[in-house]
Amino acid sequence: MNLADVQEAITRAHQQEWARVVAALTRRFGDLDVAEEAAAEAFATAVERWPADGIPPNPGAWLTTTANRKAIDRIRRESKRDDKHKEAQMLYDNPAVPSVPLGAIDDDRLRLIFTCCHPALAMESRVALTLRMIGGLTVAEIARAFLVQESAMGQRITRAKAKIKAARIPYRVPSADDLSPRLSGVLAVLYLVFNEGYLATGPGTDPVRSDLTAEAIRLTRLIRALMPEDGEVAGLLALMLLIEARRDARISASGELVAIDEQDRGAWDAALIAEGHRLVRERLAAAAAGVAPGRYQILAAINAVHTSARDVRDTDWAQVVALYDQLVRIDASPIVVLNRAIAVAELDGPDVALTAVDRLEDTLAGYHAYHATRADLLRRLGRGRQARAAYDRAIELSGNTAEIAYLTRRRDQLAQTRAQPG
Predict the structure, then answer these.
(1) Which pLDDT does position 358 carry in this prediction?
(2) How many angstroms separate the CA atoms of 283 and 143, rounded?
(3) In a 3-state reduction of DSSP, which class is residue 257?
(4) If DSSP codes are grouped into helix, strand and coil, which group holds residue 251?
(5) pLDDT tens-digit profile of 219-242?
(6) Range list of β-strands (E), 194-261
(7) Which residue of 15, 38, 57, 64 has the fewest C-beta atoms within 10 A of its own C-beta?
(8) Residues 343, 282: one domain?
(9) d(Cα 97, Cα 416) in Å, to the nearest integer?
(10) Domain DUF6596 spans what residues (predicted)?
(11) What is the pLDDT of residue 113?
């Protein structure tokens, strides 16, 4: 077996096994620092040994065993190991408060998510920590998701782990009464994990990481089994399914991103779309009964409109804009406003949309999608010079190889048409 095969196996193992190894070590040792560092050491050992020894028959088991040994070695080296053992026991084994009976949902990774999303932590810290521990995202990838500096994100994650240790937050799925306060953070984490898989930003990674999208969907299904009546859980699951249904049509054979208006809709997964639509209809029935929909339910409804159209020309853009108007009332974030403007361009024209987009410059100047959206609107308005500059900035900021290829092609097409002075 050559070195390239081994490196590919290690990369695949990291994508598939990182969260499982970290969760297993957290359950045993009750310390996130110990779990993360031992897991990292296990993967480093794999890099050293697998080229010589060969890829083990069960990479996940090999990594877990190796990481356990690394963790034990570290604890033995600590001068206060007795205190650490006691602390670990308190962190992961607290029988005083009964947790939700899991039955078939006895999942280490789900427990770890709820541990990281404890309400004692600030919401952004909950999300960032869980992306690191469960998603296996690098600090740089998480920083890009939050549009902050890598150093600031590293400090945020370190502080969150320290607070879990100091507060002796137990490693378990919380009791039924404690589920709701943690749910918003858990759903936010799963959505960001899914988004990183849907459009991966890490250098050297595949443009689409199906391991992350599949894991986010799996964990969301588990939470839906725990909380079947919660509308936002159902909405998030529907949203993920409707986006995942388009995965095979999103990347061309040459590795370029394919925009939704150019996708082969016959390649969309009909079963996932049907399941997503069923969940959306359930939530629409609840809304008709007076239950106001939340963010994920509205986003799922928007995606249901897109996936209901057999051709992009059949898209009900008025309904899409109306749904975004509803979403803005509960989440007026700049990214939501940006996405609404994209829909407005189809309904009212690119000039109206550009006016709305330009108002976001101060908050989204470092966000690649802002510049990509501006570039497309400027292109449609015939302002070629400005469009090219916006494409250049979007390419500079994007970390996804398929998206870079798409943006580069669109930019280069400008040279083939006569543009008005920008």
Answers:
(1) 97
(2) 33
(3) strand
(4) strand
(5) 899 899 888 999 999 999 999 999
(6) none
(7) 57
(8) no
(9) 68
(10) 182-282
(11) 85
